[in-house]
Design brief:
heterotrimer; A mainly alpha; B alpha+beta; C mainly alpha; A: mainly alpha; about 5% strand; B: alpha+beta; Alpha-Beta Plaits; 2 domains; five-stranded antiparallel β-sheet; four-stranded antiparallel β-sheet; 6 helices; 9 strands; globular
């Protein structure tokens, strides 16, 4: 096998794997989230939590402050343009 | 407290876990509820990228589990707040998980993709080739509103005709293989050249007959390009037991 | 990398293929809404991600409305003047969308959303 073929095979296999594990499989949602093909929103999409309603509230208050702050800054930047 | 990363929902929760580590080299743990369990590991970092390394780590844990029991693989990036949350999730969809485990136990997934070059499958008229170039390009402005919409109408009709041709051909290909599998899913024209994207649920003893069928189809349909990968855990056949897919997430807030 | 993980990776999953693997990679990238190359990109910020989300929704609505109009043209329920007016509006909307995409560095991208178990939006 040429070196090129081997590289392509790994590349393809990774592509296939990512398609499988990122868009299929069992999905358990705490909040409804959307995922888009961007690094940061994939990041957002990755914070899928299995929670009850009360816990979801707790987590929202406690956890992704960094991300929420980033989004708030982005929205602000938009409105100032 | 750091969250728990979830790899899979499994049967036989009392069975010892395989001796491998998960993401960030964390040890695996299992939370059980009646006849099923959730296999997880503690995640120290705040957020997780689907990098090549993490993707394969996720996959290899699942495949280790698959070697010894029934497995419902999770989508990458599923986190639980704590053990109680995981147990709650198992309880909420218990019946669906048990039923799906029954369906996929001892089985793997093979993926088949087929590319076509649709200029080869059009009617022979020579005008078609020229038109096809414009088929996918939107009509140009500057011609007036009516002209624009009429051009769009023509475009939509052509796309529809092409889709019908694709579905006909894909249906023929798919049914050849579906007969050899326990179950299958397919999608037609995921992209203009991707005629068919499909997955098949197979027991181990069905694998070689299936691969032979793919080779035969490839030899028959020489203008098509076939690609068959696997075996994979049955990712494409476990989605129906997700609470969202079953319309069961009414108790949660939405964005 | 654990021994099993490296074993897992190097096992060939490619059981059969006719034709060129790179063709398949190319088409998968066109088809899928989550792509290895995009996952590795780090130039895009949260801001752009949000813009993409908003533009995708606008694009969806535009397409739905346009298809409705086409349906009504086929059904013969629109006057010529209405057709002309609608057509001009859609043309302008389409142009505006392209301008917005360029402004946010999204030119040439397919706007789409993956809704998890519900599949893709468009």
């Amino acid at each position: 096998m040429h070196h090129n073929e081997v590289v392509r095979e790994k590349e393809y296999t990774l592509c296939d794997l990512l398609d499988r594990i990122l868009t299929k499989g069992v999905v358990l949602y705490g909040d409804v989230t959307l995922s888009v093909a961007d690094v940061d929103l994939v990041y957002l999409g990755l914070r899928l939590l299995l929670t009850s309603v009360e816990r979801a509230e707790q987590m929202r208050k406690a956890a992704p402050l960094r991300l929420a702050a980033g989004m708030a800054a982005a929205v602000e930047a938009q409105t100032q343009q | 407290m750091s969250p728990l990363y979830m790899y899979a929902i499994v049967d036989q929760p009392a069975l010892p876990l395989p001796e491998c580590t998960g993401l960030e080299a964390s040890p695996l743990l299992i939370v059980a509820y009646r006849e099923i369990g959730a296999v997880m590991s503690r995640l120290a970092s705040d957020g997780l990228q689907p990098s090549e390394s993490n993707a394969w780590q996720h996959e290899s844990v699942i495949e280790r589990l698959l070697a010894e029991r029934g497995v419902l693989p999770m989508r990458f990036g599923t986190l639980a707040v704590d053990e109680a949350d995981a147990r709650h999730a198992l309880e909420r969809s218990y019946a669906a998980f048990v039923a799906t485990l029954e369906r996929v136990r001892g089985r793997v997934e093979l993926s088949v993709r087929v590319l076509w070059d649709d200029t080869q499958h059009a009617s022979p008229a020579s005008e078609e080739k020229e038109e096809r170039k414009e088929e996918l390009a939107p009509p140009r402005p500057g011609d007036g509103g009516r002209a624009y919409l009429l051009a769009r109408l023509v475009q939509e009709r052509r796309l529809k005709a092409r889709r019908e041709r694709a579905e006909g051909l894909a249906g023929v290909l798919h049914s050849h293989r579906a007969r050899l599998a326990d179950d299958s899913v397919q999608q037609v024209l995921a992209s203009p050249r991707m005629l068919l994207t499909s997955a098949y649920l197979l027991e181990h003893h069905q694998l070689s007959a299936f691969q032979e069928a793919v080779r035969e189809l490839s030899a028959t349909y020489t203008s098509l390009r076939f690609l068959c990968t696997g075996p994979w855990p049955a990712y494409s056949f476990v989605m129906a037991c997700s609470p969202a897919a079953r319309g069961e997430d009414g108790e949660h807030d939405s964005l | 990398m654990t021994p099993y993980e490296s074993e897992c990776r190097t096992d060939s999953r490619l059981l059969y293929h006719s034709g060129n693997l790179s063709e398949f990679v190319y088409e998968m990238e066109r088809a899928e809404s989550v792509l290895p190359r995009r996952v590795n990109a780090n130039a895009e910020g949260v801001e752009q991600g949000l813009a993409k989300l908003v533009l995708t929704l606008i694009e969806l609505i535009r397409q739905l409305l346009e298809r409705q109009a086409l349906h009504r043209i086929e059904g013969g329920s629109l006057t010529d003047a209405e057709i002309e007016r609608l057509g001009t509006t859609f043309m302008k909307l389409g142009q505006r969308m392209e301008e917005l995409k360029v402004a946010f560095g999204l030119a040439g991208e397919d706007l789409n959303l993956n809704l998890g178990p519900l599949g893709d939006l468009m």
